[in-house]
Design a protein that fits this description.
This protein is α+β, with helices and mostly antiparallel strands and 439 residues long. Helices cover 30% and strands 25% of the residues. The strands form 3 sheets. A 5-stranded mixed sheet has the order 1-2-3-5-4, covered by helices on one side. Strands 8, 9, 12, 13 and 14 form a 5-stranded antiparallel sheet that branches. A 4-stranded antiparallel sheet has the order 6-7-10-11. Strand 8 and strand 9 form a beta hairpin.
Length: 439
């Protein structure tokens, strides 16, 4: 009786040991897999921190930035594309217009960085001296991981920065073409922040962009002490130079539009023939456009004149840079000015490219190279001539004579300078050397 019982117990013990071994092997296999998953996630997390890229988890964006469902009610219109929120505080920019604005955003050449735009917001009026702004807002992507029953559940919070673009004067700038250049410039901040690693400090001198664009030019500024100083020297800050270069090389077709400008004498004649309605159509002295403002800082020369700069910008997108016809620099274009009286000035200049499709535009700057007015546009088959100053025009209506004044009235002796741009059908543009004069 004892021997069979012993054998039975022995079989049961062996069976238990074998079962335990299989169970332990199963558990260890899952544990090993869990550890592998954990290590893989840790490696990705470390790489994220190292190379600046972030996990994209569109469903799990947390409340660490301003855009969230509860705040949609604060906006008059909302449109979402590819998880970018287009938000409007202005009646004219309804959902349909926001959809067109989204189209316009994507017309700016872009790469991986566009995934890190959170929102484009349209606002009425101005924000101080700005017509547009870009800022990065911290966002958290919450990545859960479960390691079976061996380790507690964990959420890894991978922090990143998402760009928010604000566009102002949307109550008066109600067309896509009106907003295109500002949108492109602000997206240029986003693009260059993402790819160039600019930090607003001395470390920026070590970036490839600084070395290509600036070299040893000490006029270019890096860090900001006060906002007033920033506004006053806006064109000289490296980050603004970079955003303008982006527009120049990669901006949309609308951001590269050309506009025809009319001088004072033109406007007098248009008013005499068609009155207020006719004058309203041409009575502008500034519009954001390629031929009137090819770049905010023209003192340093156009970006296309900097060796290897265009190729550097294109290296971040899936596209090749365009090839333009080689042309000789414009020089001064024999630009001259003659006073016909104390407040009336006539400019003349040579137009070496005679094709009608080539546009020449004369621009007047102050002595600090800030634009005063985009004066006159001429086709290549016309004479290069423009009137600048303050003109009076008399109109007789019944028994009364009315005097209307047109133009710009500055203190005599005010120092100014003029330049002429030449815009070509292939999208390329050139600018003449400056011509200094006194009003």
């Amino acid at each position: 009786m004892k021997k069979p019982l012993f054998i039975t117990l022995l079989v049961l013990v062996c069976f238990a040991l074998i079962s335990s071994m299989f169970y332990f092997g199963y558990i260890m296999f899952n544990y090993s897999q869990s550890i592998n998953d954990y290590n893989e996630l840790e490696a990705k997390k470390a790489q994220t921190i190292q190379d600046g890229k972030q996990f994209i988890n569109k469903e799990r964006r947390l409340e660490d930035f301003d855009i969230n469902a509860k705040k949609y009610l604060n906006y008059k219109s909302v449109y979402i594309r590819d998880n970018i929120y287009f938000l409007s505080n202005v009646e004219a920019w309804d959902k349909d217009m926001l959809s067109k604005l989204a189209d316009e955003l994507y017309q700016n050449k872009h790469g991986e960085e566009i995934k890190y735009v959170s929102s484009v917001i349209l606002n009425p009026g101005l924000e101080g001296d700005y017509i547009g702004s870009h800022q990065n807002k911290r966002t958290i992507f919450d990545i859960p991981i479960k390691l079976f029953d061996f380790l507690p559940n964990e959420n890894f919070n991978v922090k990143t920065m998402l760009g928010e673009i604000n566009l102002y004067e949307a109550d008066t700038q109600t067309t896509i073409s009106d907003m295109a250049l500002v949108l492109s410039h602000e997206y240029g901040h986003h693009f260059t922040d993402f790819h160039f690693g600019l930090l607003f400090n001395e470390y920026d001198k070590e970036t490839e962009y600084y070395k290509l664009r600036v070299g040893d030019d000490e006029r270019v500024l890096l860090d900001v002490n006060t906002m007033d100083e920033y506004i006053e020297n806006h064109m000289w800050y490296l980050v603004e130079l970079a955003a303008e270069d982006y527009v120049y090389f990669l901006g949309s077709e609308n951001a590269h539009r050309t506009v025809k400008f009319y001088d004072t004498v033109d406007k007098v004649g248009i008013y005499a023939r068609g009155g207020d309605a006719a004058l309203d159509k041409v009575n502008y002295a500034y519009k954001p456009c390629r031929n009137g403002e090819p770049h905010e800082n023209i003192v340093l020369g156009l970006p296309s004149e900097v060796e290897a700069l265009q190729e550097y910008f294109y290296s971040f997108i899936d596209d090749n840079p365009p090839e333009y016809k080689d042309r000789e620099p414009l020089g001064t274009l024999n630009l001259k000015m003659k006073k016909t009286n104390s407040k009336e000035h006539t400019f003349t200049w040579d137009q070496p490219y005679k094709d009608k499709s080539v546009l020449y535009t004369i621009i007047i700057y102050d002595e600090n190279d800030e634009i005063l007015t985009m004066l006159r546009t001429r086709n290549g088959n016309e004479k290069g001539i423009a009137q600048f100053g303050y003109y009076n025009h008399k109109i007789t209506k019944g028994n009364y004579i009315y005097t209307y004044s047109f133009g710009w009235d500055y203190d005599l002796g005010t120092k100014m300078r003029a330049r002429v741009t030449a815009s070509f059908p292939d999208g390329s543009i050139m600018i003449s050397d400056p011509y200094d004069f006194e009003y």
